[in-house]
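debug: dumping io for the single-chain case to check the tokenizer round-trip. Nothing else runs in this session.
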Amino acid sequence: MVSRVIPVDPFDLVVIGATGDLAQRKILPGLYRRHLAGQMPPEARILGAARSDLTEAAFRAMVADALAAHVDAAKQHPAEIAAFLKRIGYVAIDVSGAAGWGALKAALRPDVVRAFYFSVAPGLFGELAERLHEHGLATPQTRIVVEKPFGRDLASARALNATLAAHFAEHQIYRIDHYLGKETVQNLMAVRFANILFEPLWNAQYIDHVQITVAEAVGVGGRGAYYDKSGAMRDMVQNHMLQLLCLIAMEPPWHFDPDAVRDEKLKVIRALQPVPAPDIVRGQYVARDPAPGGAGYLHDAGNPASRTESYIALKVHVANWRWTGTPFYLRTGKRLRARTSEIAITFKEPPHSIFDDARGWRENVLVIRLQPNEGINLKVMIKEPGPGGMRLVQVPLDMSFATALGEDGTDIPDAYERLIMDVIRGNQTLFMRGDEVEAAWAWTDPIIAAWEARGDRPQPYDAGSSGPEDALMLMHRDGRRWREIRE
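debug: decoded output
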């Protein structure tokens, strides 16, 4: 099956911070792939904006290098790259001053969708919104795209929301979480709400527990200084993982409409119970000798006294009729055994087994795999082939769609590609609303405040392992086990 490409309307997209890592690694290569797919009309234009004093030719050369480094070789067609680069312009601006804003305004068209992607440090988000308004770049068709982190606590998130709201309406603000742009995440909603098969079973009566894992094999690397002020709770749980939990736990919205979907997600966040200390495990990776892949966290962060967690596991409960009694286990960490992100929904055992071979019994598990190989499968029990009686074995019913949009799956759009095109369309379904962000911080802040008040130190865990021993006990004491972390 070939994916259907629906072109968007003409637009001017300004990538502020266009010389930075995110723009060069994700945003600009993603835009090229949308150009190659035919989704951009001929009139679409992309403007880079940054402090660097570059000529347009020099910036285009920089973009060409980014495409060579981050676009699959099979998609690097010289004629298409040349055509894409013709869409590209560049303006040097001073975010904190007046330089360049007049030139940027003159380069934009008044009669098309105008989007500004804030690919800059979070501390500049509010200032950028003020500059756009001050220099007359905000029009009724203007949209702004704001990267995470959106604040570092409830107070800062509220302050940033207030600053943005002073210059833009909520329907113009796109708080991006690239996890929501993944094909598998969107198919989770399709599996739930477009099929009668699962929805009657999607509750505490039939689901034993849910595991959400986001494991990374790399350490904090060059992000050490930033990460040490953030930690796994702020960097991953408060945004990415809560969004995944919401999609699993939310009630069916009345329609696949931006506010209808976000209303239901907000209800889930507000229904999250406080998490007691015994249901939280924090860890820091340490390097053993020899240590393949690098040093320990304290070295990577450049802070020998750091108490910041590079790993966290939590047992979370949603206090509503659908989910009372069903725990959600969340874990995420750096320098773990493998890079993998998945949601595993484990169903309860049948109330009575008619088979004698109970030793081989396994629960039904629906696994939604986000990376590295996107797909969905359902593990069910069947008879083991061959003579010798009724012996049971667990096998996966593969519902993977990783190859559905192309022979090898490479035609599935990257999350950033999809989300940027949604910005141009004006579709906010996969973006966080201001009250969602604040509700997530309202739940997260007391957890962080409690361990800071106690002076807790993260538990050490070996780089390349599955995390701290106490994270295993978090599951074992409930008679459950974490799924194996593997690629």
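debug: round-trip ok. The chain has a mean pLDDT of 89.
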